[in-house]
Write a structure and sequence with these properties.
The complex is a heterodimer of chains A (650) and B (232). In chain A, strand 7, helix 7 and strand 8 form a beta-alpha-beta unit. Chain A has four domains: 126 residues, Sandwich (Jelly Rolls), CATH 2.60.120; 113 residues, CBS-domain; 178 residues, Beta Polymerase, domain 2, CATH 3.30.460; 145 residues. By secondary structure, chain A is an alpha+beta fold. In chain A, helix 11 runs antiparallel to helix 12, helix 13 packs across helix 15 and helix 21 runs antiparallel to helix 22. In chain A, 44% of the residues are buried. In chain A, the strands form six sheets. In chain A, strands 1, 2, 3, 4, 5 and 6 form a six-stranded antiparallel β-sheet that branches. Chain A has a four-stranded mixed β-sheet with strand order 15-14-13-16, with helices on both faces. Chain A has 23 helices and 21 strands. Chain B has a five-stranded mixed β-sheet, sandwiched between helices. Chain B starts with a helix and ends with a helix. Classes of the chains: A alpha+beta (650), B alpha/beta (232). At the A-B interface, helix 1, helix 2, strand 1 and strand 6 of A face strand 2, strand 3 and helix 9 of B. Strand 1 of chain A pairs antiparallel with strand 3 of chain B.
Chain lengths: 650, 232
């Protein structure tokens, strides 16, 4: 029997690092009993490229080990391992020789982990195998364990966990009211009102003889459409005032589902029917009240307050609330697409309200005349991609119908005044002004459709690397307010321009390849292939932009008309591009991981979260980032191949 | 030579059935006449430590032994040993504060006879290594002598002396600055993380890490065989 004290000591050392931190105590103990401890001096070679595999993998307990490949006598650094890193895992998965050389970079203590033990754990412990599948995809070519495999079950674990703790009860099924009070469409308004007041209820569902829901009459309908209207409307049938059609859903919805639905539809009542459609009998009803009564600070409440705000100050207050909500969601590991949807809906509502207020103020002011010209407010960049979690710079523009030439100037003046008011209000709400002045308040970016088409035409027909780089933000435009057809028209024009100028896509793609991903982290440095090390990690430029740029190029190439987020784009591309099945999901998961990491960092530091100090990353985050980097590399390779970029010169 | 005679003597007693078979197993395993000429990576070292009721080798007694082996320059966690010995006293308060063992802990310990047999079976002909080894060896020998009338037959290495020899050369006078070669000081100097000090097994594990580094250093400075290491 080995010494308990010593085994416990080794257990304590192993448990500091993933994946051992997740192992059950007895299993970890068994592993600890089987390890050996070795000491190595600086410069010592642990194994050479081409050496046959050992019967153990290595874990750095103290010191550092560098792994490199030798190509034509030149050393190519592949990885630097520090405390807690595991290397030499080829021995676990492969039968062939080592493909890299491991050399001690600083005097090191290594644990040798017997391969048969690890193999056994891989078979019996799913979390353990998950770690190895993800963490070592890079060093084990035969087994293409991809990030998808590593992250997917991980994400679903996140999700389960998150919904469990997400404001405690969000996973609970919303219990609909099943004793729904209904009436036929022919009864008089007066009769319906009497039923409602007798039963003490706020709404009544109008149903067909088969109990299919036709419409709903609420307190508000009675106030607005009956009481305030002169004349004897009360003697008319309810069908004349009911809101119709009703929004029908199937049963079994959770609070989280319902909150999302309320935020999206801005409706307050939902009918549950047998099959979820309006052509089946009603079985219950869920009202806003049922959902909101259960909690205080939720997105629906914020949304409602935004919609009912009487001025910009309240908008700011609600946006601040949204930020604390974001913090809760992030802490609870709520699924990223859920968070970004909610925050985008709230941001959009704030923009919408700011535009409402501004239009009103301009009308009241009267110094500029509101023209009879339709317009569309565009969000650009990250907000256009529905990815702005934290309040970073505002990037926006106004697109309006081509006015008759004689009034062109006044029209421009009006929309510019609108742009200035709205951007000012958004600034008041905490959205900083764009340093590059890409805002609707800038005359250049407040233009009629024809001018916008000219802009895009210039970018697409005579592309020039620098201009392409600066124009990417515009290609992510998304209509938020006003005549969305104008946005659609612009998008079609862009597709048509691109189809006639295929060369542009090459430039666009080349732009997406400007930044090769780093290798990973070593202590407090970001390790680059070029051997330059940085002690700050620009998550936007080095990881998010390469993915986001790639997704944009492909969605434009494949003329996807919807306004999608980067993750949504990748998921869509997966269906459109043969051979991108797994890479799409992988890239989407990677991007969402990066968004989360950036938000966490931003919330912790009260800034945009763009620059991350490597020392604040834990081991698992570092390992996941390393996987993300290899995903970026794959995406870039694919892009390179697709557009044959090796032939394009800068 | 004396050791040789004593060993022969002990073997004879075994043949006559005067010693228990477990003990005889220990005595018989010292049959490798080439042990001293083996290269360092082919020697099994047993790094050990004892906790005692005090520091008087003639009155105090061992209350626990911990050990871990180093073989081919590797510390094998699986090849380790730990035992508590049942005693009626844990020593004076000073000793208790050092080893942290209370009487009730010792009640769960093994009989001294079984503990000793276990340790000998585990050690075999391994080269014993300890920090200030003379003391720990003397404590074990006192038990052995009382019960069986012989001392340990193993080769012994003292890590403090080895460190001194590698750092300063073999003729440096250790007595002048003893503080420099205390275990804590050595561990700190060699960058070994401290934890859990003053349990026999915990100290043995730390000493093993120190010895591992010293052994590499020794090999680099031309000490190739066990004979070189033992200065024999």
């Amino acid at each position: 029997m080995p010494s308990n004290t010593i085994v416990e000591r080794v257990v304590a050392d192993l448990r500091k690092y993933p994946p051992f931190d997740e192992l059950a105590p007895d299993i970890l103990q068994g592993l600890a009993e089987s390890v050996s401890l070795t000491y190595h001096e600086e410069g010592e070679i642990i194994f050479h490229k081409g050496d046959s595999l050992r019967d153990h993998a290595f874990m750095v307990m103290k010191g550092a080990v560098r792994l490199f490949d030798s190509v034509e006598d030149k050393e190519v650094l592949v990885d630097l391992c520090d405390e807690g890193d595991i290397f030499g895992v080829r021995a676990i998965f492969s039968k062939h020789d080592y493909v890299l050389t491991a050399q001690v970079a600083e005097e090191s203590l290594l644990f040798e982990l017997p391969v048969d033990r690890i193999r056994h754990l891989l078979e019996t412990d799913p979390r353990f195998s998950l770690f190895f599948a993800g963490a070592f995809a890079k060093s084990v070519e035969e087994i293409e364990h991809t990030l998808t495999e590593a992250l997917d079950p991980g994400l679903s674990r996140f999700r389960e966990q998150s919904y469990m703790t997400f404001l405690e009860n969000e996973t609970l099924e919303v219990k609909p009211v099943t004793s729904v009070v209904t009436c036929s469409p022919d009864i008089l308004i007066r009769e319906a009102a009497k039923i409602m007041s007798d039963k003490g209820i706020g709404s009544i569902i109008v149903v067909s003889p088969e109990r299919h829901p036709l419409g709903i009459v609420t307190d508000t309908d009675l106030t607005k459409k009956v009481v305030s209207v002169p004349g004897s409307v009360k003697e008319q049938p309810v069908s004349t005032i009911m809101s119709s059609p009703v929004y029908t859903i199937s049963g079994g919805k959770t609070i989280a589902d319902m909150v999302m639905l309320m935020v999206k539809t801005k409706l307050r009542h939902f009918c549950i029917t047998e099959d979820g459609s309006a052509q089946s009998p009603i079985t219950g009803i869920i009202s806003e009240h049922d959902i909101i009564i259960s909690e205080g600070n939720n997105p629906a409440v914020i949304m409602k307050a935004v919609m009912q705000a009487s001025g910009p100050d309240q908008l700011k207050e609600q946006r601040d609330k949204a930020e604390s909500l974001l913090q809760v969601y992030i802490e609870q590991d709520v699924a990223m697409h859920f968070i970004s949807n909610i925050v985008t809906e709230i941001n959009d509502a704030i923009i919408t309200r700011a535009i409402d207020f501004s239009l009103q103020e301009l009308d009241d002011d009267g110094s500029v005349q509101r023209p009879e010209i339709g317009f569309c407010w565009l969000s650009l960049g990250s907000e256009g991609r529905k990815e702005q979690l934290l309040r970073t710079d505002q990037d926006n523009a106004i697109l309006y119908e081509d006015p008759p030439p004689d009034v062109a100037e006044q029209v421009h003046e009006y929309f510019l005044a609108l742009g200035k008011k709205v951007t000012g209000m958004l600034q008041h709400c905490g959205f900083v002004r764009c340093p590059a002045d890409i805002m609707a308040s800038n005359p250049v970016w407040c233009q009629p459709v024809s001018a916008w088409k000219r802009y895009f035409s210039k970018w697409i027909v005579t592309p020039e690397p620098k201009a392409v780089m600066h124009s990417t933000i515009f290609f992510d435009f998304r209509p938020v307010y006003g005549q969305t057809e104008l946005g659609a028209e612009l998008k079609q024009e862009i597709f048509s321009l691109i189809s006639k100028n295929r060369g542009f896509l090459g430039f666009f793609a080349k732009n997406a390849l400007q930044n090769p991903p780093p290798l990973g982290f070593f202590r407090n440095f970001l390790v680059e292939k070029s051997r330059d090390h940085a002690n700050e990690f620009d998550i936007k430029a080095r990881a998010m932009m390469p993915l986001c740029d790639a997704a944009r190029v492909l969605t434009y190439e494949l003329t996807v008309p919807e306004y999608l987020s980067t993750a949504e784009r990748f998921k869509r591309l997966e269906k459109l591009v043969p051979g991108m099945q797994d890479l799409g999901t992988e890239a989407a998961a990677a991007y969402e991981f990066l968004m989360r990491l950036r938000a966490v960092n931003g919330l912790a530091n009260g800034n945009s979260g763009r620059y991350i100090k490597p020392e604040t990353l834990n081991k698992l985050e570092r390992q996941t980032l390393r996987n993300v980097f290899s995903t970026i590399e794959k995406v870039q390779k694919m892009l390179n191949l697709r557009f044959q970029l090796d032939y394009i010169r800068d | 030579m004396i050791r040789f005679i004593l060993h022969k003597n002990a073997e004879r007693r075994c043949k006559r059935g005067e010693l228990p078979s477990g003990i005889c197993g220990y005595i018989r395993c010292f049959d490798d006449s080439h042990l001293l000429s083996r290269p360092l990576d082919e020697v099994r070292f047993v790094v050990f430590d004892t906790e005692t009721t005090g520091f008087d080798t003639s009155n105090d007694v061992v209350i626990s032994i911990g050990a871990v082996a180093l073989d081919g320059f590797k510390i094998n966690v699986n090849d380790s040993f730990e035992v508590l010995i049942r005693r009626d006293s844990v020593g004076d308060s000073e000793a208790v504060t050092t080893h942290g063992l209370l009487l009730k802990d010792l009640h769960e310990g093994a009989e001294e006879k079984d503990a000793l047999n276990g340790f000998l079976a585990y050690t075999g002909d391994g080269v014993l290594v300890a920090q200030h080894a003379d003391y720990d060896v003397a404590m074990i020998n006192r038990m052995l002598r009382k019960r069986y009338g012989f001392d340990l037959f193993n080769q012994v290495i003292d890590t403090a002396s080895l460190a001194k020899r590698l750092e300063k050369g073999p003729y440096y006078n250790l007595a002048h600055k003893s503080g420099e070669y205390r275990l804590d000081t050595l561990l700190e100097r060699y960058g070994i993380r401290l934890y859990d000090r003053h349990t026999a097994a915990g100290d043995a594990y730390l000493t093993a890490q120190l010895f591992q580094m010293l052994l590499m250093k020794a090999e680099k400075s031309g000490i190739k065989t066990l004979r070189d290491l033992l200065l024999k």
